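User: My advisor, Dr. K., asked me to get a structural model of this assembly before our group meeting. I'm new to this, so sorry if the format is off. These are the inputs:
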Amino acid sequence: MTTPLIEFRDVTKCFGNRTVLEGVNLKIYEGEITTIIGLSGAGKSVLLKHIIGLLKPDRGTIFFRGKPIAHMQKQEIKEFFSKMSYMFQGNALFDSLTVYENIALPLVETTNLKKDKIHRRVMARVKQTELTEAIHKYPSELSGGMQKRAALARALVTDPQIVLFDEPTTGQDPVRKNAILSMIAQYQKKFGFTAIMVSHEIPDVYFISNRVLALYDRKIVFQGTPEELEEFDHPFNDEVISSLESLQKELTGLYSRRQFKILNSAHLKRKRSAEPYAIVVFTLVDMNFIIANLGSDLAYDALQRMCTYIDKHFGVIGGLSARFSTSEIVTMLPHSDLEEAQNILDDFIKDFEGEGIESFWNWIKANKWETIAEPVTFTIVAGVAEGTPVTKIENAIDLAKANQKEIWSAKVCRQGVNV
Amino acid sequence: MTASNGCSTGEKEEKQSLNMLILKAFSAVGRAVINWVDTLGSATVFLFFALWKTFRRRQLSKVINQIYYIGARSTGIIMLISLFTGMVLGLQSYHALTTFGAEGAVGTLVALSLIREMGPVLSAIMITARAGSAIAAEIGIQRISEQIDALHTMRIDPLRHIVSPRVAAAIISFPLLTTVFDLVGMVGGYISSVLLLGLNHGVYINSIQASVDLKDITDGLIKSVVFAVIVVTVCCYQGYFAHMRKDSHGAKAVGMATTSAVVISCVLILVSDYVVTSLLI
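Assistant: The format is fine. Below is the predicted structure of the whole assembly, which you can bring to the meeting.
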């Protein structure tokens, strides 16, 4: 069995008479994105600060690769912490330094790199976090979102092996929230670091997380995959997930996977066993390429427009739509069979080619495309399949994915757009 | 029986409450003393580590930056204050000494007062008001906005990065500013006594030359170094531990830390002035 990178055993932390963590047990594995979820004030940040060494447990032990941190030599501890980076909830940027100086600070102070090398590394992060125009500004001159990105750039500039994110998306608009989460996922894949994140963004964090830890009533009550959490029968799901989820229709206007499943089973209960329903799966193809070339903002803006359009069209005829992954939308048509669903999809395509294209044109005109390195193609594929109340909905979704065909494509380049 | 019992019980209670009162008073004094010794000890360790970490790599530019902030930017206000202090000294001493026909000693009085006492003390108080308060507030804000925690997470020693350059800069700046204070103060004395009241130019200059020894100057500079250490330690310490204050939290804690820094520094400047003077004489 794999040894966890970080493990908590019976960790308890009190502040005066208030116990924040009580007998916490958790495991964090190397190379994964682990998200800690819980209500505000549940002690998520306190938990994170134990990992980075800003706080020490009153009772219990923290292990790093199976070795108790308390028994480590000074040099080992130094090495352990040197692999980590922390992004604070309140950003903790130095207000007397410019954005550039803030990002460069860990390199200037802790490495022997030459000035030009530091400059190159800082500028690479600045570009990736879309802060080029703000490098000479002070944190107080930036918007909340830009400050967040500056903090993210500073956390990643040292190429750490473990990065702790304390609510990295707080105070961001829905597009930017998804952009930051996808940036974390992208970097995690690219650099292979272990990400430990505290977040409220349910269900958006599920799309990027390998494991989820649920902090409830001073304890970790769940450790597992996001899919396993959906099946988890505990008051945590009713009290915490539901309350956080209700806020999460911001980006796409669609239901979460969990809400979708609940609504779906409620619909199916009312049906006779042989009565069919239809599933349509839409995908915006090669989302990562679009993000890499257009930037996260524009990519998620495009996704948001697509979701809004799908929900508008299918919602009026009783369709339930949910975002199942970063760029995948599943729509259930509870009262339609396969043929009817295919006709509805054809109508949607016609509608999209008329009204949808016009809105896409307006969007194209409203944005600047001079910075595109290479042409970007927006391709939407869709597939229809039929399901019955006695079969699993996942089977129908898989079948619909297998039936996906291109329904629309547009190429954006510096000169304009080809549809 | 009941009456005598009642009486003895009342007496006992009275005795007990008196004992409790004495006990409480002693324990309050004890707590205060323990607290004071504890703070003094941790401030000494704080200063020791800050001084020790001054001589590390990448410190020079930070020290120069702080010299500019604590020293160079305080020069204007120090010159202004010292000019009027010198003028008042010249004015008062001229009128007082003329009564005894000893106006020739005006230069001596002005120069020795400034070099031995007023220069180091007043410049230290002025720097405390201008730079010390800002140091406490700046470090306090860095503490409550988690900037110091951020340094820890980046493996940058906050003592080395924030406190050491300020300690070094204060130790360098205080004697320099005291020297400026002394010189401008003597010019002030010259303006009031010679230019405005008509004292002989040569008498003023000669009396200064004849009365000021090198020891007077070194004693004054020693004092200014002592004050620098006190002021910068108190101000940095108050800001650095603003989050641990029991009387307030957040922005209020920073405000209280700043106030405490200025008050404690000023009191300690005057107390230590007496102690150092008695040791040097």
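One thing worth pointing out at the meeting: Chain A has two domains: 6-245, 257-418.

User: Perfect, thanks a lot.
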